[in-house]
Amino acid sequence: MPASLARPTPPPGRHHSGAARAAELDDRYAAAVTISVAGPVVAIAIGFALALWVARGISRPLREVGSALDRVSEGDLTTTIPDPGTRDEVGTMARGLRRTLASMRSSVAEVLRQAGRVTAASQELSAVATRIESGATDTAAGSQSA
Fold first, then answer.
1. Which has the closest alpha carbon to 98: 123, 72, 118?
2. 3-class SS of residue 58
3. Domain for residue 94, yes or no?
4. pTM
5. CATH number at residue 119
6. What distance in Å separates the CA atoms of residue 96 and residue 102, rounded to the nearest whole number?
7. CB 90 within 8 A of CB 61
8. With contact defined as beta carbons under 8 Å apart, do 80 and 69 qualify?
9. pLDDT digits over 14-26, tens only?
10. Distance from the Cα of residue 66 to its chain's centroid
11. How many separate domains does the chain show?
12. HAMP domain location, by residue (predicted)?
């Protein structure tokens, strides 16, 4: 029999019987099955953890902006709109809401200024009307005595 076809002999000091070889192959198979099952399970767990992290990264800023919107809808124009510090849709929405709120504050301040002017003009008109009434009363009284 040629040497290339001869059965390999185990290294010195290691003699394998058929049962020992079968046990070694069973151990290798069990390790391969464990790795084959554990790998996808670990990958799924990591994927689930990443999904939670991303979901919280989106939902937390949305809840904060939503809470601020609730306060504004209740009439609190002093509300501070949180800055999520992102350049995504949530960040764009928060920046737009901040600009809108600043515009609303400016509009309310202008209405209050104009209301103050109307109040002052109303008081002046009331004073003029009182003087006209007084003058008319005096004129009427003078014409009756004449």
1. 72
2. helix
3. yes
4. 0.55
5. 1.10.8.500
6. 10
7. yes
8. no
9. 555 888 999 999 9
10. 8
11. 1
12. 56-109
